[in-house]
Amino acid sequence: MGKGYLHVYTGNGKGKTTAALGLSLRAICAGKKVFFGQFIKGMDYSELKAVELLPNFEIQQFGRDCFIFNEPTEKDIAIAKEGLNKMGEVLVKGEYDLVVLDEINVALYFKLFSLEELLAVLKNKADHVEVICTGRYAPKELIDLADLVTEMKEIKHYYFKGVEARVGIEK
Amino acid sequence: MGKGYLHVYTGNGKGKTTAALGLSLRAICAGKKVFFGQFIKGMDYSELKAVELLPNFEIQQFGRDCFIFNEPTEKDIAIAKEGLNKMGEVLVKGEYDLVVLDEINVALYFKLFSLEELLAVLKNKADHVEVICTGRYAPKELIDLADLVTEMKEIKHYYFKGVEARVGIEK
Question: How many domains does chain A have?
Answer without folding.
Answer: 1
